[in-house]
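$ fold --in a.seq
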Amino acid sequence: MSLTPVAAEQLAAVVTMLEMHAFPADMALPPSPLRLDRRLAIAPNEYRTLFRLVGAPWLWFSRLVMSDTDLCAIVHDDSVELFAVVDAANQDVGMLELDFRTANECELAFLGLVPALAGHGHGRWLLAEAITRAWRPDVTRVHVHTCTLDHPAALAAYRCAGFTAIGRAIEQFADPRLAGVLPLDCASHIPLLRTQAATATR
């Protein structure tokens, strides 16, 4: 067994791909005080604000580095459904993005909640909502992927919900904090290997 070094300004993650081919027979929608609010024709900056709110703690950055044109080509597509998760105070506290652009398939492209809601059962509700909405009459496959930078319970949650792991891959990319895409204080559980001072001198 060998180790492959990763440069200090880079991150590496193990990505696990999962899928299901039938709606889970035992799927039930847990009660929740949260609700889903469909966001149609969302402005790029509004999308990025929602994306950061949910994803910054897990270093989500892919949509933050897209141009407005490329981002809108995805999120304004009629086959992509975007929802904000909204709490009783009408505040955005999560997101769900379903991608139906491939015929007979749905990808759970992004789903997550703000960290303050972790551990209260809201994640089970959101995942059940996602799966229920993904299974349209013409859909024969629902798929999702997660990685080792995501919430540590994510992979187990997908498997418990009925997904089967079908593959793994290694992903390596520039640390979005050091690249200036996300603040340096994001994802404190993932160590920065270069200090702010060192970054400033580049």
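$ fold --in b.seq
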Amino acid sequence: MRTKDTVLIALFAALIVVLSLAPPIPLPAIPVPVTLQSLGVMLTGAMLGPVRGGLACLLYLALAAIGLPVLPGGRGGLGVFFGPTGGFLIGMALGAFVTGWMARTLVRFPMQGARPLAGYAVACVAGGIGMVYLIGVPWLAAVTQMPIAKAAMAMLVFIPGDLVKVAVATWAAWRVERVWPVLRESP
């Protein structure tokens, strides 16, 4: 791994930490708050690619696991991973990897027209929403002992906000890639 890769991984792990500092918004009857972490997952995967994006999320999760207060609400420690949000946290690394892999596959250069935007959007939806929910929803159902269908229905309230995050991540990744081609160089 080159020094540049290490710096980018650390930088994007720090970006996720900063996005996690935004106060979580609790929702009634759902033990999962609204946070900006998934925006960090989308940005990390779309901008760094699969390997570096996944490693940046793993670094963020390692910081949380050792007890640093990097999770929303100033939480940290291994106990958080066994709570209702643990599956979503674990799904973040997979989500960044899938987002990066799909972005690398779908986004074509030169960065002109709507095709790159569509590629980033599909990658962010599949990785930043799909993969995170794929692990998070069954985990939530198991920990709270609610039926998985009910847990999935409860998560529908997050979709509009997640789609706004997809739009922000898509636009940011597209703009940055035009002037600083990180994705084209990603391992």
